[in-house]
Amino acid sequence: MNAGYGMRTITRYHRPTTLDEALDLMARDGVNSVVVAGGTVVNSSPQPPDTEVIDLQAICSRAIERDNGRLAIGAMTRLQGLVESPAVPSLLRELAYREGPNTLRNAATIGGTVATGDPDSELLAGLLVYEAQVRIEHPGGPSTLPVVDLLADPRVLAGGIIGSISVATGGATASARTGRTPADVSIVAAIGRAASDGVLLALTGVAATPILATRETIASLDPSGDFRGSAEYRIDLAGTLADRVFGQLGGVQ
Predict the structure, then answer these.
(1) Residue 170 contacts by C-beta under 8 Å, 6 or more apart in sequence?
(2) What is the pLDDT of residues 135-144, one digit of tens each?
(3) CA gap 203, 146 in Å, rounded
């Protein structure tokens, strides 16, 4: 194992008990720090030498509750908590289940899922079609922005902590996916939801993060190919899966 990778680079562990304490720890000059929610990323990704861990478990909420017609989900809510909550829209419950095995779902959090921006995350694609908004706690006060904007520019999270994610409720939904096996991570997935002004369509596997798209924009995508499929294959697959989603939703545009 390379000495510059993995848990051997962790030099200190912090478990702040207040938001201000966590933000102060993150703001220190000359200190490599990584924020940990469920810990599934820090345990599997390379970290800079002499990294300090800031564990958010004691300060971020796990509540799931109605808020002004939307559903507010605390950032520390485990993915298994989404699967089991009757308050969560059924499609999001299904997509949370697909994120990985039970051991991962009981550790990984929705806040960490949003912050990581995994291009293959069907749950993240589902959040996009449910018009998810993220509340970010900053030293100067909180801000709220659409998750799609955070994915487009992750720098907006710099120095801040995701406190909660809120989603719209209602609307017919559909999904279609292709993987090497039914249990495998999808090569491309299409998630759709009928909103007030038409169908919102999100795709995985065709960009650096899940994205919102339309039938017209699919052909202009420029995905990276890999051993599971070339760029051309992914674009063709995205178009086919999008057609299936629109078909399930009755052809609503």
Answers:
(1) 89
(2) 999 998 999 9
(3) 17
